[in-house]
Design brief:
By secondary structure, the chain is an alpha+beta fold. The chain contains 3 helices and 9 strands; from the N terminus they run E-H-H-E-E-E-H-E-E-E-E-E. Strands 1, 2, 3, 4, 5, 6, 7, 8 and 9 form a 9-stranded mixed beta sheet that branches. Strand 3 and strand 4 form a beta hairpin. The longest helix is centred in the middle third of the chain and has 15 residues.
Length: 179
């Protein structure tokens, strides 16, 4: 595999949506991705595509987050991350996450949040966010509370007085906050 990761370019939306359709076997995540890319409340976004040679095989999206009450820390939310099934478990997702974290760090983002598999994301430094004072945009079931995670990209370790993380308007629906 000849893996490269770069910023998504205009005109690649259909390839990006095809990746998410195949990775999640549903239309919802592909539609969410397209909607987030067009949502001004998601800005600034970082949209990265992984390629095997000329073939698009993975995509990751990071959108802006804010806090209520407001705290002076820049943050983003990782969602979604999709890799074509034939390329899963081959380091593509890991490469996308690492590249995205580097880009976000260089742009001044301090905290990164994700609602994802608690067995996958800790390798990147993610830890349960609720236990650190960061509530998800919608309540997470107690049995899944460790799936709502945060990592510090720069600055002090992520601890906060009780705040709620606010997401882009497109993602501000309870069905997106179930793990």
């Amino acid at each position: 595999m000849e893996l490269t990761v770069r910023y998504a370019e205009e005109g690649e939306l259909s390839e990006i949506m095809a990746i998410h359709r195949a990775a999640f076997m549903e239309e919802d995540v592909a539609g969410l991705t397209a909607d987030l890319l067009a949502d001004p409340t998601a800005q600034p976004v970082v949209s990265l595509v992984a390629f095997d040679g000329e073939k698009a095989i993975g995509h990751i999206l990071f959108t802006a987050a804010r806090f209520e009450p407001e705290i002076n820390r820049r943050a983003s939310i990782l969602a979604p991350l999709g890799v074509l099934p034939d390329y899963q478990r081959r380091g593509v997702g890991k490469a996308l996450v690492k590249h995205g974290m580097l880009v976000l760090t260089e742009s001044g983002v301090e905290l990164l949040f994700v609602l994802g598999h608690p067995d996958y994301y800790p390798v990147f430094g993610f830890m349960p966010a609720g236990k650190r004072g960061f509530a998800a945009p919608y309540p997470i079931e107690a049995k899944n509370e460790d799936a709502w995670m945060v990592t510090a990209l720069s600055g002090a370790p992520p601890d906060s007085p009780a705040v709620t993380v606010k997401c882009a308007a497109t993602m501000d629906r309870p069905e997106y906050w179930r793990e």
